[in-house]
Amino acid sequence: MNRNYIFLTILMIVLAVGTLMLKPAKQLKQIEPETLLKEIVQPTRYISTDEVAKRLIQGDPSLLLVDVRSEAEFEKYSLPRSLNIPTEKLMADDNLSYFGVPGTKVVFVSNDDIKADQTWVLTKRLGFNSTYVMKGGLNCWMETIIDPVEPSPDAEETEFKTYSFRKGAQMYFTGAQVDDFNDSKVEVQVRRKEKTSVASGGC
Amino acid sequence: MGPLIPNGIIGGGWDFVIAILLGVAFGFILEASGFSSSRNITGVFYGYNFVVLRVFFTALIVAMVGLMYFDYFGWLDLSKIFILPTYVTPMIFGGVVMGLGFILGGFCPGTSFTAIAIGKLDALLFTIGLYIGIFIFSLGYPLIEGFYNSGNLGNVTLTDVTGIPAAWFALAFTVVALAAFWGTMIIEKRVRKNMKEYKF
What is the distance between the alpha carbons of residues A155 and A137, in angstroms, rounded to a whole number? Predict the structure, then answer.
């Protein structure tokens, strides 16, 4: 009997038994493509910057802002009380544990809403509910909350209401002061009447 | 990392080049294993030569166990590879036809080309028959189309069907294959004792 055959037989059995010890890779469960498609076409996943600002001001504890931009961008500017989870690191560490907590709403924030939308799709595929996207992202945040544009005088009343809210939010987030009224700086000059000399005239 | 083409590590245009290289390697191994001799191949049915069984079973268990380790080490994602769809009855029927052709002709399609490469006349006739068979099948396809596509289970694996982890199948196949190696060695010895003449 050939010794090589015996050796190879033993080797093959050891290797085959070894496959039983291999731990299968963790399979992430995904929702059905049809369900995802139905969710994607719904505009309800968007939350406006006004809504986010309102909740931030109110200190809503159920709101969790997740900034999906890179760490460098996050360092440069970020919304108050927001958490930085770059899209690339979504599955890393224990980042997924932030999602799907009952009673919390996760809102994804990026520069525009493309990256936030991508992250939303990823979390949706993984079956997490109550995740949202801040419509327009930080660009829209800058335009609406940080630097709101005054509506034209003939605009509707609701626009003025929104504007005044935004102005208030601007003060809250940037610490801007109320514009001083122009006339407050006018110095009041007191003119004193010259005293008339009593003995200036007479008949 | 792998599979290389689906993961975009190499371009899709390379598949023909890879196919040619693999084909050359496959042909070389077939010839080197003695598969260009119809006597060797049909020996399985008469019990005097089990080289076909040994070569194919070796390839099977090495590839099977090897792929599982590749998957574990992250070199090849087994969930991304193509799995041939299973058609139960047509496959059983096709297996019987193939087995009959194997005994009658002394070759399987691949080995017949290997044998042509070393200049065997019987293999040449076999391949002519092979092409006539393909031609008849193609012409008669509308008649058997229903049966051909029946019993489709889709791209399933044994694990999908039974729910038993792939590792158990790997172990079972390995044990069966190794038992077959040793068992057929004994059979070969006994049968060859009674043979007056044995040539490859």
Answer: 25
